[in-house]
Design goal:
Helix content is about 75%, strand content about 0%. By secondary structure, it is mainly α. It has one domain: Orthogonal Bundle (Tetracycline Repressor, domain 2). The relative contact order is 0.10. This is TetR/AcrR family transcriptional regulator. GO terms for molecular function: DNA-binding transcription factor activity; transcription cis-regulatory region binding.
Length: about 220
Amino acid sequence: MTQTRATADRTPRTARGARTRARLLEAAEDVFATVGYHDASIVKITERAGVALGTFYVHFPGKKEIFDEVVHDLSQRVRQAMSEGARRGRDRIEAEREGFREFFRFTAAHPALYRIIRQAEFVSPEAMRAHYEAICSGYAAGLESARAAGEIRDVDPTVTAWALMGAGELIGMRWVLWDGAGRIDPGVFEGLMNLIQGALEPPAAPTDHDREDSTT
């Protein structure tokens, strides 16, 4: 069963119900990030959300199911932020810059992303894998389109997507999460962008001087 199917039959039918569900997800995100999955409880979540214990079960079958929904919700939100940033770019290199800029902004505002995804490796491996594969799918598609348009060099889009995702995640962990500065250091950001540009930018077309040198 996927992380979204477990609660499909509990979709709120009213605006009030949707607001209550959102409060539960927000509270669960905070509780899981603060005390960890194993020390979290449904009572702690409902107390944080300010709702009755019975209300929880209207929306979620149990703790594992709401954890999966928190992972899914965070995943959707970070992908949306990155996509909106990438759309500002006039070409793929600019799209990388703006997409990563939004990723680091999101992680600074929502450090729970790192803490909860790390827990998911042990609590819900299928939810963790779905998170990363969803990011990679859209990322690789964008790289493939850019490659076909000649905006980047001839790289394997899937391998490149996974590699750059890993770089961005670890840079964010070191300079956003661990430093707790609320933003990434501009020098670190530019260092990452230089690395990405060097990896993706297509080789320059040969000049007349280059052609002359090749014939001598």
